[in-house]
Write a structure and sequence with these properties.
7-stranded mixed beta sheet, two-stranded antiparallel sheet, 11 strands
Length: 218
C-alpha cells in the first residue's frame, strides 16, 4: 500500500454505556475530537532497520515544495542512487543542505521508503526536458530511486524491480501516467546524468507505456 499525506480531525463524541446492551455508544459533543487519522510519516529510525520486501515507511524529506497548480503528473523518472544502502540514501535526503529528494527510494531487498508526498514536488530530476520538449521535469514527474552503485556492474535484484513495478502500478491508478523515463534521458544537457546504468528496461514493457532511456539529444 502506498501511503499518501493525510491529516483530518473528526467530530468529537463522548462514550457512554447503553443501558440495554451494555455496549459503548458515542454521543456527539460539538467542538470536541472523537478521533483522527494518524500522520503516516515517521522519524528516522534509530537504529536503522530496512522495512522489508514490499513494506513501506514514510520518512519525510525537508527537500520539497508544492507543484504548480496546473501541473499534471504524468511521468515516472527512474534513478539509481550511487549511494550503496537505503539507510544512507534516506540520510542524504534528510539533509536540507543536499537540496535533493525523491518521492520513493527502493532498497535492494524491495524495501520502500517514501520521502515526499506524490502530490508535492520532489527535487530529483534537476534541469531537463522530456521527449515532448517540456522543461522543469520536477513539476510533472514522480521520482523513484533504486539503491544501486550505478557502476554498470551491480544488478537490479528481482525484489527491487517488483517493488518498482508495484509503485508504478499504484501511480497509474492515481495519475494519468503516460511515459516512463530514465534520469539520463530527461537530464539536460545530454550526458549530465547516466542513471540508472544497465537497468533492464524490458521488465517495464508490460505496462504498455513509452519508455525513454539513453541520452536525449533532441
Amino acid at each position: 500500500m502506498i501511503l499518501t499525506a493525510l491529516s483530518c480531525a473528526l467530530t468529537l463524541a463522548q462514550t457512554v454505556q447503553a443501558p440495554a446492551s451494555g455496549n459503548p455508544v458515542q454521543t456527539l459533543v460539538p467542538g470536541k475530537i472523537v478521533g483522527y487519522v494518524p500522520d503516516p510519516r515517521v522519524p528516522m529510525p534509530n537504529p536503522w532497520r530496512d522495512p522489508g520486501y514490499l513494506q513501506i515507511v514514510w520518512i519525510q524529506s525537508p527537500n520539497f515544495n508544492q507543484r504548480p497548480v496546473d501541473a499534471v503528473v504524468d511521468t515516472i523518472v527512474v534513478h539509481s542512487t550511487v549511494i550503496p544502502t537505503l539507510e544512507r540514501t534516506t540520510v542524504a535526503f534528510q539533509r536540507e543542505a543536499s537540496q535533493v529528494s525523491a518521492h520513493f527510494s527502493i532498497g535492494r531487498d524491495g524495501s520502500i521508503v517514501q520521502n515526499v508526498s506524490t502530490f508535492d514536488r520532489a527535487w530529483h530530476a534537476g534541469v531537463g526536458k522530456d521527449a515532448q520538449g517540456r522543461t522543469n521535469p520536477n513539476n510533472y514527474t514522480i521520482g523513484i530511486e533504486l539503491v544501486n552503485l550505478n557502476d554498470g556492474k551491480q544488478d537490479y535484484p528481482d525484489a527491487q524491480i517488483q517493488a518498482l513495478c508495484g509503485i508504478i502500478a499504484s501511480m497509474r491508478r492515481r495519475f494519468p501516467i503516460k511515459q516512463i523515463v530514465s534520469h539520463e534521458y530527461i537530464a539536460q544537457p545530454a550526458g549530465r546524468k547516466n542513471d540508472p546504468k544497465n537497468f533492464p528496461w524490458q521488465r517495464l514493457e508490460y505496462f504498455g507505456l513509452p519508455l525513454y532511456f539513453g541520452e536525449n539529444r533532441g
